[in-house]
Amino acid sequence: MNMQAMAGNMGKKVRSDCHIELELTNSGGQQITSISKVEVMYGKANRKLILEILDFYEIQHARVILNDSGALPFVIAARLEACISQVLQTNKEFLLPQQTINSTNTLKEQQRFSRLYLPGNTPSLMLNGGIHQPNGLILDLEDAVAPEKKHEARYLVRNALRSLNFYGAERMVRINQGTRGLRDLDFVVPHHVNLILVPKVETAEELLAVQNRIDEIKKEQNISHPIWLMPIIESAKGVMNAYAIAQATDTVSSMAIGLEDYTADMGVRRTQEATESFFARNMVVTASIAVGVQPIDSVYSDISDMEGLAKNVQASKALGFIGMGCIHPRQVRVIHENYAPDSTEIEKAKNIYKAFLEAKAKGLGVVSLGTKMIDAPVVKRAEKVIKLALETGKLAENWLEE
């Protein structure tokens, strides 16, 4: 077995991270070399943490070189443990205490206007993601992580789930495809992840394999909190199987479409007008609504075009989507503003719901507003708009008394 390993990142542009080199030796004790601009302030604490981890794994003789760029303890611990996993065969996990704020549950039907992707091996982009107030923060183990870095990213994502301040955002992780993704689950399921995004799903069986592994881990570790699934449809085959995928398991809270991979699979270019993906998006929306889960749109890739993003969200909303992904924090506000009901929608919903309440109070089986009859689906839609308006602060709690 290789007795040397390294993990992490270093360089002039690297922030809030570290690079660790570990070499197991036959003698000499525990030798730690720390290279850091903040050595005076944090050097002693960092050395103490490294010694604690070495002792935990019963490593008596080793050389450790820490090249620190302002990493927090959960990052240093993840980097060192990733090194140890390469040189030792062990089932032990060095776990920092889980913050109470990272032990909350989320609801299947809760608001998911936005989800912000954060690369799973880049701590600097994780640390303040939540201050932009997206509905969800995605720690991404898939496309945002280079293949040779995926193993060490698992430790960082695991520690982030326990230690990172998500500022109230839903804690999400996008796993990898296939067997690599199933292995990812060992690192995220036990640490109170709220929702797992499953990429490039093409069949219900693929999603069930993920669900079955989640169930096994939950049973093994006596975990009871709900973990929701968001399959991502990214191919022609996935589109045609969208209905079966959406109803594969009752833990599916939402289903998303990924248009970059879908258009590549179709051999077409993704355009601003999106006519090339209209059928696919419509299929995902229809399948989602038919099953009773949330349809989620793809990301908008031009992070400099806020006007284009607003138009894209409006078109998305018109198709029936209730949210979309973000690849930059500045997109969050525009997405929220345009998915939230506007003043015209709110006023119409208020009038419909008031008419419904009046008819109900009079014992009438038929609801009318002016010369138009209102059926149950219309009332249900009005209730949904009012609920969203209340959640987004566009409607006062006492609106019925106005």
Which terms summarize this structure?
402 residues, alpha/beta, Ribosomal Protein S5, domain 2, TIM Barrel, 3 domains, eight-stranded parallel barrel, four-stranded mixed beta sheet, 14 helices, 42% helix
- Kindly provide the name of the CATH class of the largest domain: Alpha Beta
Task: Indicate how many domains the architecture comprises.
Answer: 3
Tell me about the largest β-sheet: 8 strands, parallel, barrel
Strand content: 15-25%
C-alpha termini separation: 74 Å
Q: Overall 3D geometry?
A: elongated
In terms of quaternary structure, the protein is: single chain
Total count of helical runs of at least 4 residues? 14
The CATH architecture category of the largest domain equals: Alpha-Beta Barrel
- Sequence of strands across the biggest β-sheet: 5-6-7-8-9-10-11-12
SS-based structural class? alpha/beta
Work out the helicity level.
Answer: 40-55%
SSE order, as H and E?
Answer: EEEHEHEHEHEHEHEHHEHHEHEHHEEH
- Name the CATH superfamily classification of the largest domain: Phosphoenolpyruvate-binding domains
Mean pLDDT, nearest integer? 93
Count of β-strands: 14
CATH topology of the largest domain: TIM Barrel
Low-confidence stretches: none
Rg, rounded, reads 24 Å
Description:
This protein is α/β, with parallel strands linked by helices and 402 residues long. The chain has 3 domains: 4-87, Ribosomal Protein S5, domain 2 (2-Layer Sandwich), CATH 3.30.230; 101-339, Phosphoenolpyruvate-binding domains (TIM Barrel), CATH 3.20.20.60; 343-401, no CATH class. Strands 5-6-7-8-9-10-11-12 form an 8-stranded parallel beta barrel, surrounded by 4 helices. Helix 1 (39-56) links the parallel strand 3 (30-36) and strand 4 (62-68). Helix 1 runs parallel beside helix 2 (73-87), helix 2 (73-87) packs antiparallel against helix 4 and helix 11 (306-319) packs parallel to helix 12 (331-339). It is built from 14 helices and 14 strands.
